[in-house]
Amino acid sequence: MQARDYRTAVSRLRSVVDVAPTNMGANYAYALALIGNGDARAAVRPLERALRSEDAPPDVRKQLGLVRLQLGDRDKASEQLTALATALAACDATCGDMKRAQIQNAHDALKAALDAPATPAAPTTGWLLPGPQEGRDAYAAAVGFVNRERYADALVALDKAEAAIGPHPDLLNYRGFASRKLGRFDAAIGYYTAALALNPDHRGANEYLGELYLQLGRVEDARRQLAKLDALCPYSCAEREELSRWIVVASR
Questions:
Q1: 2-58 pLDDT, tens per residue?
Q2: Domain spans of the chain?
Q3: Cα-to-chain-centroid distance, residue 75
Q4: 49: DSSP letter
Q5: In the CATH scheme, what is the code of domain 167-252?
Q6: Whether CATH 1.25.40 fits 1-56
């Protein structure tokens, strides 16, 4: 798969599915190999089998919707979007911020494809397993979208960037920022928390998490983020000064 030899991947993964026909991971990987090999129609059944598992990630449903859309069945694709919307509404506090963010991203990517005025691109591995240069280009595009306040487009571009390079504090920080601007505060907290789990000293994530706490009226939590920036920036820094300014405004 990583070498983009999808024909061989299809053959090898078919053998895996033959041995473990109900295994979620095997079916999902097999479906991705089929998509990469240009056989989206054959990917429908393994994606449906993968969805029977309670452990299926939201991306499985997203990919099934994209495949259905590629095959010209908008109604079936819309069913997957509805299912993601239902899962998002049911994702309460016990669901967890990261799971909620995953569902939100899958929902947004499929909705963007359904809303596209032109025929959407096939769900090839250009989305699923892009190379490093594609990842860098997607990240640059995401930053551009953020700067132009096109936050939903930024999240789609960040999906592609993360598929290429994996979770990275900068990517997660931008995910949090875009989600916050879209009013998805729970998802934003999850992304900022994930960014800080990878790099507790990430100044941008510490600042933006503090700003989000202020939006939620959690001034003391914002002050704790400022204290972290005080430790990170003993001679001050832009992130520390910006969060301090917003705390002063919120405290008036």
A1: 677 888 989 999 999 999 898 988 898 899 889 888 888 999 999 999 999 887 888
A2: 1-56, 57-122, 131-166, 167-252
A3: 24
A4: H
A5: 1.25.40.10
A6: yes
